[in-house]
Amino acid sequence: MKRLTAILLMTFSMVVATAQTLKDRIVRNDPSKYRNLTAVHAGAGQMAFTQLIGRTELSTNFLYLHAGVINAKSGIGHHFHHTIEEMYVLLTGEAEFTINGRTSKIKAPAIVPCKMGDAHAIYNSSKEPVRWLNFAVSETKGRADNFDLGDTRVGAAIDLIPVFVSGRLEQNKLKPVKLSTAGNSVLYRRVFGPDIFRTDWNHVDHLVIAPDSTSGPRQLEGIEEVYYVIKGSGTVSINNEIAAVKADDAFYGKLGEKITLAADSKEGLELLVIGINASKEKGLNISKPLLKPKAIVLQMDFIVPKENAESFEKMYYSIYVPAMTVQQGYLSSKLLRLFPEDIAKSIQAEPTTYNYQIQISFDTEENRKKWVASEQHKIAWPSASGLAKEFKWRGYDVMGDDDQR
Q: Rounded to whole angstroms, how far apart are CA atoms 318 and 380?
């Protein structure tokens, strides 16, 4: 148990990542790299375990994707998390899942969300090992916790019908949809939406792409996604890179990136897709005059052609804001559109050719510069400037405000 806790609670290091290729993002679920653990969360027997994706890879509050094998007569003991939510995925076999002291047998392929504050456990009562995944999202970036109940759940009473939320990854429940106008029709189902979770989970999707078909490009607007290939093989394209993927590969897409998934000519591509919202809420309050600046504001003026106006406004809330909300020191932003000409004349406004302004606020100029140097800025800024004919900017120290949001 101490070994797993040490793994889960490793110190989060805010280190700026070096440039990473798409191939570097694709992680193989390789049993040869598993480590053996005993009495996990005071559970029975042994399991083998590894981490595929961790807390530093994404900008959102995604915490980890774990993979492993739970041996026969073994499991993860009954325990709580008060700052994270998990979702157990059973890839093979059958196991006993417990949520808040109620236990039912669940057959693969299945998923069971473990909501924040709900006690949960899994026990493999069979004679064969089962393959298992565990996704987690934290309430606070990089933070994890656990509280063990000292309960193995061995011999627990079984409810024939689960009295907790669960889902199955059944292809006969998928429906044909088009995820992109440039793609083919794919088979798709949203198994869980955001209402199931209390943290920043957005969705759990089940997706099958037919042989020689493609999803088409789809931009991650306000979300990041983590993918696990259940069956088949194909390719993933992110922005201008393409790489091969196959069964038991995991990879991820970041805020604002364009993702295209394609299946090869043989067996198609089946995936489990986890979506995580970008979210950060910070209020401002000043009760007396400031001696030092509270924050900084950068004002950026744009000349946006009329035909690009709708795209520019959509870009702000779907790409620019989500990219900033995960940055250190980000406080707020505004998108301003110039008054129509008749209203501008009626208030004797100064004539200008700049028709849009974006104001962004950070706690310090140093953190704004970190935002400019970030991978998210490399996507967000071209999305804004590429829709404008001209742009300029100026910076201010914030010496007072009255934000009554």
A: 10
- CB-CB neighbours of 111 under 10 Å: 23
Q: What is the fold of 295-398? A: Alpha-Beta Plaits (3.30.70)
- Regarding pTM above 0.70, the answer is yes
- Helix H or strand E encompassing 50: strand 46-53
Cα dihedral across residues 70, 36, 226, 114: positive or negative: positive
The neighbour count for residue 267, using CB atoms within 10 Å, is: 14
Q: Where are the domains of the chain?
A: 2-277, 295-398
pLDDT in tens, 80-120: 999 999 999 999 999 999 999 999 999 999 999 999 999 99
187 with 208: CB under 8 angstroms?
yes
Of the candidates 165, 188, 168, 184, the residue with the CA atom closest to the CA atom of residue 176: 188
Angle at which helix 375-385 crosses helix 365-372, to 10 degrees, equals 80
2-277: what fold?
A: Jelly Rolls (2.60.120)
Q: Tell me the C-alpha to C-alpha distance, in Å, between residue 90 and each of 93, 102, 384.
A: 7, 18, 42
Rg value, the chain, Cα: 24
pLDDT in tens, 15-50: 334 457 999 999 999 999 999 999 999 999 999 999
For residues 224 and 30, give the distance between their C-alpha atoms in angstroms, rounded to a whole number: 24
